[in-house]
Amino acid sequence: MVKAHIVNHTHWDREWYFTSADALVLSEQLFTEVIDELKKHPEANFVLDGQLSILDDYVALYPEKLADIKQLIADEQLFIGPWFTQTDAFFAHGESILRNAMIGIFDSKKYGDYMKIGYLPDTFGFNAQMPTLLEHAGFDNVIFWRGLHLGEHVDSPYFKWQGLGEDASIYAINMPQGYGTGMLLEPTSAYVDGRLDPAIDFIEKYSKTTEVLIPSGNDQLNIISNFAEKLAEINKMGRHDYQLSTYQDFIQYVRELPDLEEYRGEFRSPVLARVHKTIGSSRMNIKLKSASLEQKLLTRIEPLLVIAKASGISISERLLMHTWKKLLEGQAHDSLAGCVSDPVAEDILHRMKEADELCDSIENTIVKKIADDLMLEANEILVFNTDLHDFDGFKEIQVVSEHKNIHFPAFPDATIVQEEFIPSRENVLEEMPAGNRFIEEPGYYVLQVRVKVELSGLGYRVIAFEENDRELDSMVASDDVAIANDFYKITFENGEIALEKANGERTTSFITLEDDVNAGDTYDYSPLAGDIAELFTFSEAKTEKSSEVERLILTGKNDFPLDRLTKEGHGELQIELILELKKGSELLDVKIEVDNQIKNHRLRLKVNTGVTTDYNIASLPFGYIERKPVVPANWQETYSEMPIDIEPLEQSVTLTNEVKSCTIFTRGVKEYQQLNQQLALTLLATTGQLGKPDLAYRPGRASGDTTKKGHVLIETAGAQLLGKHEFSLAIYLGDQAFDEHKTAERTKAFNQANVSYQRQPFNHFLHRLDNKIQKTERRLGAKQTLGMLNLPEEYLVSACHPSYYAADKYIIRIENPTNAPQKLDLPDVAFDYVNAIEEIVENQDNTIPAYGAVTLRLDI
């Protein structure tokens, strides 16, 4: 006889094929019934899906229920948190996953205690560093479903899961048959003999334990009424011992099990459940916007808020958390994956639009207030360094000037890399002390200027330009079809892009774009039998060059059927590919602008790396994972979908051998495939349907409930992504093997923020709030030059943000994405070691663990 820990819960998708507004209406009824049932039955308990956002939404409707909720939590009947939303674990940045826990835990405290469980019941697989992230957020455990292969990863569903390093290890509890294993809980022989006991037998067969976990709940499912009475009846009928339990009780049981297996690695195997291995390219507009916001928050807004506090500007951390929440609501597993209906996708993008506006407004407020306090002149530019190291290199700054006849006396190599001229306007009102008058407002230039500048860590300085008798150096159009710097030469000849390295090694067909039919849905790409991918051809080439920057610009328009799947109609795919080399830079910058006017297709960018190897290395939080592109034969016998070798990345992917390497750095492109020496990155995989049955890579039922009884197929015209899309990448080719630390440094350089501000009189709407931010009469005391912290170059900063709990402190997180511990030596810096939720932790050896991070709390 096995003891079954039966836990009553609901899995609550905030949105899916229904919207968050729909879910709120459901929760208004259901959560009220949950509260009533728990009050009526003090022996009962209920798990509210491990995410706080749904409870916040409900309490906004029913603030009078707060006292009951707090009491039920205190009585350990209602379990909430720890997450703000049920995070995706592959396509969200590691810091976003941490913010999800940090904000969920912070907000949980207004209700009482939170569930100290890394509870992720439906996420589509897990990156190999989840133990590291969870442990850093204060958890020693995880409960999950998808991605585990029993008998291959581990024999038992209860084991120890280790991060890539030696220091992070958590208790892992897998639900092999999902969070709905014991749903409905009917005291009938049909239920006990047909569902419950077979599930217990299956788990016991693998676990070989005397106790097993049986979650009882499902999507948007209500609390089970009279739970104890129904269990008593079931105990009279079944072959096992069925007990009302909690996740916490079962975790304690697992903690005490001897000789638990240990596993290190990711969970991405679609055996008992689908993980949707090609979902990394579904609704790319959501993924691109999410990644853009992550970088804006991490590299601009959070460090600027620390600088603001040091400059006497008070902006609440609650505004920062509010901004993060807008993004995190779109990083739930269905939302960020993109397997949602069109109305939901519109909601996600609107919330991200709001987050983007909040970011811009926060930045606008900070930089303008500092500039006002310093009383800067119109020819003075405030340039920021949001990194925590002293900076000596190139920044791109925005300059607004009546003409281009300017120069920077202290920076003679300044170069215009982009420009826009705004014509003059007539009959413009000017308000004067003597009265109003109408004038002609002169035209002006908005310039992006590349300037080599030294900046103190986490600070700013003021630089000035002056009028000159000649124009500032700028990009000049050229008929040449080759660009070069000290590292690479790139040519376009006979419709082909070739690259030559400084050592003379030449690669032909270096970059190609390939398009094929997508017969899949919003969950997965699917090939069409007999389809042959077509290479995109460029018809025009031009270059722009200056002393500092050279660009090769290729454009083309290719004809395709409007619908690639049905081959009906006429459509066009127009692409502009911009390759840019900067003086002194070992990165080749790649920008792709796609005007997509065709449907049901997949567009991939292929890079011929020239590296012969049988494995690839992809980035993930605080580290890198090695993968080999292997698809098992006869996969249908074992897997619920093809374990295709199309894989996720966080920010980079590399091919390497002993003598050379090629790394591609991405901003929002999340899916790649190794094809011998090539790396193929998916830019778009468009489709017109939420879920389809019988796909080539995914046989059988349709995902997304669309082939359940009474459900209908849901069209997703918005997932065709008609219109314009922009992609940004960088490529590094080295004559040495892959180096983890240097690759991480290049990732930071690729994502460095360019933050500047000018109190110019020409356009008060370049920044939306310029015209409304009032200059205070009281001086803030901002310094003319600021440098808050200069870390040694060998330390890689993952985050810098204001403390959530102390107004006079700020947080920095230093990561170590290598296989060796790193000594932390900061003799001139006073700090406390904390974890991500700012609990004091011990670090007696003063080390950053391999593939790990340390968080420090400092005084502002």
From TrEMBL:
Keywords per UniProt: Glycosidase, Hydrolase, Metal-binding
Pfam families: Alpha-mann_mid, Glyco_hydro_38C, Glyco_hydro_38N
SUPFAM superfamilies: Families 57/38 glycoside transferase middle domain, Galactose mutarotase-like, Glycoside hydrolase/deacetylase
InterPro entries, per database record: Gal_mutarotase_sf_dom, Glyco_hydro/deAcase_b/a-brl, Glyco_hydro_38_C, Glyco_hydro_38_cen, Glyco_hydro_38_cen_sf, Glyco_hydro_38_N, Glyco_hydro_38_N_sf, Glyco_hydro_57/38_cen_sf
Listed CDD domains: GH38N_AMII_EcMngB_like
Location of the Glycoside hydrolase family 38 central domain: 274-352
PANTHER family: ALPHA-MANNOSIDASE 2C1, MANNOSYLGLYCERATE HYDROLASE
Family listed: Belongs to the glycosyl hydrolase 38 family.
Protein name listed in UniProt: Alpha-mannosidase
